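Margin note from the TA: students keep mixing up input and output lines. Inputs are the sequences; the output is the structure of the whole complex. Example:
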Amino acid sequence: MELFEGYQGAVYDEMFTPEGEIREHWRSLAENLRTLDTEDLTLKQEEIDWQLRENGVSYNIYDDKADSKRKWNLDPIPFILPHDEWETLKRGIRQRVRLFDRIFKDIYGEQQLLKQGVIPAEILYLDSHFIREVYGFESSYYDLSLYAADLSRGPDGTFWVISDKTEAPSGLGYAIENRLAMHSINHSLIENIHVHNIVRFIEGFKGSLSRYTSDEKPFIVMLSPGPYNETYFEHSYLSSILDCELVRGEDLLVKDTYLYLKNLSGLRKVDIVIRRVDDRFCDPLELRNDSQLGVAGLLEVLQQGHVRMINPIGVGVLENLGLNPFLNSICEFFFDEPLILPQIATWWCGQEKERLYVLENLKTLIVKSIDKRNANSMVICKHLDQEALDTLKEEIESNPYMYIAQEQINFSTIPSFVEDSIVAKKNSIRLFCYKDRDEYHVMNGGLARISSNKDIFVVSNQRGGGSKDLWVLSDTAETLDDSVDLTPPYHDISFSSIITKRAENIYWLGRYLKRSIVTARVIRSSLKYMLSHHSADMMTDDFLKALTHLTMTYPGFLGAQLIDPRKELESLIKDRNRVGTLAFTVSMLSNVHLNIRNQFSNEARKVFEKFEHKWSRYSRKRSPDLRDDVDNLDELLIYLSAYKELTRESISKEEGLIFYQIGSKVEMAMLLISEIRSLLTLRYDRSREQEVLQFMLNAHEGYTAYRGYYKSNLHLAPVVEFLIFQKSYAKSLVGIIDALKRFTRKLRDKDTMQARFYSSSRYLEKIHKRIEKIEVKKLIAECEGSYIYCELDSFLTDIASLLNEFSNEFTKNYFSHYYE
Amino acid sequence: MIHYKIFHETVFQYSTQVSFSHNIARLKPAQNDSQKLEKYKLEVHPRTKAIEEYRDYFGNSLSKIFIKQSHDKLIVTAHSVVSVDEEKIAEKIRSFEQIDISLEELQDDLRSLNEETLYARQFLFPSDLIPNPGREIAAYGKESFEKYDNLFEAVSDLTARIFDDFDFQSGFSNVTTPIETIFKEKKGVCQDFATLAISILRGLGIPTRYASGYIQTYPPEGKEKLFGADASHAWFSVYLGRYGWVDFDPTNNKIPNEEYILLGYGRDYNDITPLKGVVQGSGSSYLSVRVDVRTMPDS
């Protein structure tokens, strides 16, 4: 086999025997691979990459700011397990999860394990995931509903359990995506091989959920920490195939010991929460009070049994590695039988004999904290020098209860396709199971992962490794996974079921997008003016001051005389830490986009990604000259305009387009007022007035339209009339206010709570009346002893404050659930 | 029997209207051999029916209070009447003279497996607000244990030294002030002194818990006691193996007697905060507390 020439595995290799023979259960695959060469595999890899990217499969890396979204890697060569071995593994996993389920109930209930001395109490007392606040609830609370275990094969060929995932086992979504990608691209590899299907597992899990409540159709939400989380793709993917609502803490509310989802029609009672937020962050009232991810009062809802949680808060303690050395005794204690699956040898340093062994053999061991909060502080001792070893010894001796040590095993390797050749990689497999009534069901498949480095023993997505589809061979043919449709049934999305926070985000998308575009445009106009008027002239100064007003970046150009305005301009464009700058507005826009991009079409997302990429390249370095700024702003504006069109298309009426429109109009009106105030309320001489009016209309992109209405030369009166009073011009103040009135009325007609319409719309009425009552002549009448048009200025100030009140009242009424 | 009437009022003043608030009160005095709770009433404004009582892992009673009407001020007042059996307390304090236990003996006792030691062992480790003592603080504490083998004497000595070496000064610290600062500045309030002692004692391997409650105070001679001029009090409690738990008050260099009323025990202030809450709304909040402890005339 040409593909495998030169392949060199470890002591135990998944595919090859030490003699270089292909193992029995790999033979069919080898047969399917026979006709392929590396070029074919490269092609397949490219196709797989493409499909995963198209499906948006990604993995976020913490602390990796430059590019926090990593693509998900899937190897075209699968991981294969034979039927018989699988049956043994399955039995072992079932026993292990039943055992953890039993331990969970005991730790938070009778505590027989402590009282009978089966485990030392210190293991719990030192673990921040032993959550005293959930002690003593109804025993039905303590259900380990979903569980995953990572296993690797040791040199003797048997599988060892390396870790247990009880809190919020991740990977299920990736496993399914991997399988679907393999089916659609790698079909020729799977030919004539009976592989167990895994979709049935998902259907089973979904079915099991309805048995947790008396409700036939329980309302289920998936509680996620949000788009910054490393596995957010999975949250969004799983919530869609499990047919539940993806929410964050801020979308929920506890009232009278029940949990509710806030949506536009009010509150909807939640029956089941699938939890992806760490235990300690779930309730700022009783757990970590600095948490923004949880819901205040949630623990009491759980204590009352008014919501079901998968997995329940408190379950994280089962991942405590200090339990490992005692697991066999615990198994004997509860079930009167030994553990079926071997596990990695673990020594808890809280015991004297064990501690001495660890200290003596430290060099060959791996040291970890028993509290999974410190999971990243694992130490591989063979990499340490003498000094670091001594420090570690000291630490262990002073806090012995906190540490465990594990032996370092030479795990098996598996052929993996990496950068156009097949190499041997360390690996592990993650198996999943769920509980239905009192039975545990194991997925006939799973997620195989390969280490990113041949030497590094750790297999972890966080460190950027790759993944494989896990094929479990079946003795019969099964329905193929790709023939099962996982998409949830069609839902009648009604306006009133929009999650409040989503509506609020859409509103702010409208506002920030508009603000970004207008700010960029006005800056660009100023720069262009500066470029065409070489000598420093007075007008430049006025325009720059107007920029400061518009962005409210005081003192800015209004401050002490700036010798070089370039510096302030640079900051106004690129300093994201300064409120009001273009960079600041863009970063707010990025935030909002991130929160709702799931709703957008692929194109909208791609355009925004490109925009962000371009923006970050531009804003991170100094511009060589003004021309470079103009070119860049031009290009960015093109992206933003395209994005604007695409998002508007993506958000359907039922999904709250109206909020986008209202947000956009409110922002437009505010910016227009600010522009007129900063440019047109000053009295200029005739020639400068010309320049200013021209600038104003250009920045507003209204010059051509103006020309259509007024054939005359530029004069202040017609320009003011055009910008404020011209009803047939949509971008005039009156035009914008009319649109706002129209949109809010439309909102009222969809709404079940009409009262909230009136309390905000009265401000629009007031604005409308003020505009109708006043004439242009009066606005630009000279004010005695003043160099500004004071009537115009005070009129605009009033309108701005009314608009502000409208915006406050509107957001309060629709987004804060204030009156419920 | 002494009967105490206790008034404990907490006011949260918010800068804006808040719509919902979830609160937990731990204001109900404890019951034990020498302290009985005769009366207890929790008063909440704005009024709410949503008050549920529970018991926590440490055995303290707590009330969860939910308010669903718009408000800018929350007032929670606990009215308690507690009777304290001064004879029993005196007898108990006298019995402490019999205590004679070394650190090694305590550690032996802790190894025996029973519910009491299981409970005590959770007070051996650092907690959120009470970290391990640094080198300097540990060395300071150790002096008492080099002087005395008997833990009762050593802890008494430590209590006395903290009383002598530190000044009581209110307003200098809050619950988050690190013990290093207290130690360096040599000043603080009752909870700082308790926290400092707890850190030292846990560092030595002695289970130590945080006690929260009240202490009877007296007005300057010839003057009437002003209403609401008292404060909550804090001290600590150590586990001395076969002799059980013994309380010490470093703020007054005393073994708590009939002048003390206990609310409850925890690992630190966080476990036994009198009132905490989360509101829905923006803006800041301002907290004020009034406490009044006085003996009832008929006793």
